[in-house]
Write a structure and sequence with these properties.
By secondary structure, this protein is an alpha+beta fold. The protein has 2 domains: about 5-95 and about 195-225, no CATH class; about 95-120 and about 130-195, no CATH class. It is built from 8 helices and 9 strands. It has helices at about 5-10, 15-50, 55-60, 85-90, 130-140, 175-180, 200-210, 215-225; strands at about 65-70, 75-80, 95-100, 105-110, 145, 150-160, 170, 180-190, 195. The strands form 3 sheets. Strands 4, 5, 6, 7 and 8 form a 5-stranded antiparallel sheet that branches. Strands 1-2 form a two-stranded antiparallel sheet. A two-stranded antiparallel ribbon has the order 3-9. Helix 2 packs antiparallel against helix 7 and helix 2 packs across helix 8. It is elongated, with a radius of gyration of 31 Å. The model is unreliable at about 230-240 (pLDDT under 50).
């Protein structure tokens, strides 16, 4: 079929409808290409978090979100982002953590705090409590032990649970006076600073996604456009 025959075939129908349908098809392909690329980026980023070795890594994958914006015409947009950017940056950059007050940084003893963090009591009257205050509410007064060349300690005299080994509670005044049933536990290790390990590669994934966006979206656009399943008009000369 010659170009002239193709043109006559196109003009013999409703030209405005053909034009409108063609533009809609292009718009759908552009949207599908961009959104698929954003989905691929989100998947790679989530896989990085899942394989990081961080505690609760599977739950943290849900903090990597995707938003899609169809907008108008040929200008769709998408956003892949973290709802926990402080954590992302800290483990991407191997951040050095220091105490805000410039003193020691308390690191929870995982044998005492299995979750790795100090949880605020569910019932505290709405009061804001710092880490040390929360620990003293649970275990009683903490004692400072300085160790030259090593991490210093904050320890407490507590009673162990007979029914739940490894669980401790605040000792009574009588137990503290007599010493019966008491044991000393390390509640916090104290360090001047702590350098987090580099466990996340989100910045690398985002940089690669940004650099490869144009070519990848072009490739995906062609695939989505050609898979629309409609006859292409005015495609140029053929051998038929």
């Amino acid at each position: 079929m010659t170009v002239g025959a193709q043109l006559r075939a196109a003009l013999s129908g409703n030209f405005e409808k053909e034009l409108s349908d063609g533009l809609a098809r292009v718009q759908r392909a552009v949207q599908a290409a961009l959104f698929e690329y954003a989905q691929e980026t989100q998947t790679k980023w989530r896989q990085d978090v899942a394989q990081s070795g961080l505690k609760n890594a599977q739950r943290l994958t849900k903090t990597i979100r995707l938003r899609k914006y169809k907008n108008q015409g040929l200008n769709p947009a998408s956003q892949v982002f973290s709802t926990f950017p402080i954590l992302q940056r800290a483990f991407e950059q191997a951040t050095v953590v220091r105490s805000k007050q410039g003193f020691f940084l308390p690191i929870p003893n995982p044998d005492v705090w299995p979750s790795g963090r100090v949880s605020r009591p569910s019932r505290n009257g709405g009061q804001r409590s710092n880490t040390i205050a929360i620990a003293e509410q649970r275990f009683g007064p903490l004692q400072f032990i300085y160790r030259p060349g090593k991490a210093s300690l904050l320890v407490a005299q507590v009673r162990g649970s007979a029914s739940r080994p490894g669980t401790f509670r605040k000792a009574s005044a009588t137990a503290l006076r007599t010493g019966n049933g008491l044991q000393t536990i390390v509640v916090f290790f104290l360090v001047k600073e702590a350098k987090l390990p580099r466990m996340l590669r989100g910045s690398v994934i985002r940089d690669r996604a940004s650099r490869g966006a144009a070519s990848a979206v072009d490739r995906l656009f062609i695939r989505h456009f050609e898979s629309a399943g409609t006859t292409q008009l005015l495609t140029g000369p053929t051998d038929d």
